[in-house]
Amino acid sequence: MSTAEAIQQQAEEFRARYQALVREIRRVIVGHEQVIDGALTCLFAGGHCLLEGVPGLGKTLLVRTLAQVLDLKFSRIQFTPDLMPADILGTNIITETPQGRREFRFQPGPIFTQICLADEINRATPKTQSAMLETMQEGCVTVAGKRYELEKPFLVLATQNPIEQEGTYPLPEAQLDRFFFKLLVGYSSREELATILQRTTRPVELKPQKVMDGPEILRWQKFVREVVLAPHVEDYIVRLVLATHPGSEFAPQITNQYLRYGASPRGAQALALGGKVQALLQGRFNVSFQDVRQVWLPAMRHRVILNFEAQAENIDPDQVLEEILDQVPEKAPEGQAA
Q1: Torsion sign (Cα): 187, 67, 164, 318
Q2: pLDDT tens sequence across 23-80
């Protein structure tokens, strides 16, 4: 078998395994196809996911179902204003040895898992929210000067409620940037709501089966990074990200009018890796312009900061980003070639 045939075979296997995951998740979750695909893209790209939506739309159920179909350790942290960093990371406790001596022993917190549901993360204070920064970026925890590695794969899925803002603490930009995607969970349609009622008000309980384990996920994460990103597509990603920077030579008028700050290099990384997952799902081993456009909004909506004018006119980040996507050509104009 040639190298090309082997790669194609692996790509087909990835698609089949991905679809098996989706099938099991949809046994429990009705609708929300884009949210499910976004969460799985984060998983295989090795990133974290922020889910935003009003209460009762199934955000927590989606994360629990994902944990059920993956043979991974799972924990849930309910964020509240009185939650402390030690409640997340763990702490040193005094224990007594069989010889009667007392010594410190580290008691791991709920963050020592593989899938962590950070429920209503914006209800905790900034001090507690900051406890998640090192774990999300480095995959480790430092307590009392000692570093503890977390087991891989490690995925944080956080939820937040956009309407009850009283008594909440908006996530700082530094922490928002560490989320690979921000996914908006919307309302169910008439047909979906009817299906939800049928599934949840009858004595039959649907339990999804485990489909994938940790070593297989790590293998697919490595395979995703091997997908080819051609120079012209890479340049398209670069120009898109630079187009979110006010004052940049690539910035369209709407950027200078409504944005205060643009996306960081993490935004470009999210577009590249998210595009690679999309390419594999389309049966290709190279990223296309359409793959990048497909992940543009979830990868960027939490990375741009609106200015006062945009807030005064009730402009949504998605509106600005969609206009930028329309304005930036796929092929670099003459004189702007990399």
Answers
A1: negative
A2: 888 888 877 788 889 999 999 999 999 988 877 777 778 888 888 888 888 888 988 8
- Tokens 């409640």 map to which residue? 87
Domain boundary assignment for the chain? 30-206
The answer to whether 38 and 181 are in contact (CB under 8 A) is yes
- The C-alpha atoms of residue 254 and residue 334 are separated, in whole angstroms, by 22
Q: CA-CA distance, 233 to 277, in Å (whole number)? A: 15
| 40-71 exposure pattern, b = at least 16 Cβ within 10 A, e = fewer | bbbbbbbbbbbbbbeeebbbbebbbbbbbbbe
Start-to-end CA distance of the chain, whole Å, equals 37
Please state the pTM of the whole predicted model.
0.88
Q: What topology does CATH give the domain 30-206?
A: Rossmann fold (3.40.50)
Beta-bridge mates of residue 183 = 51
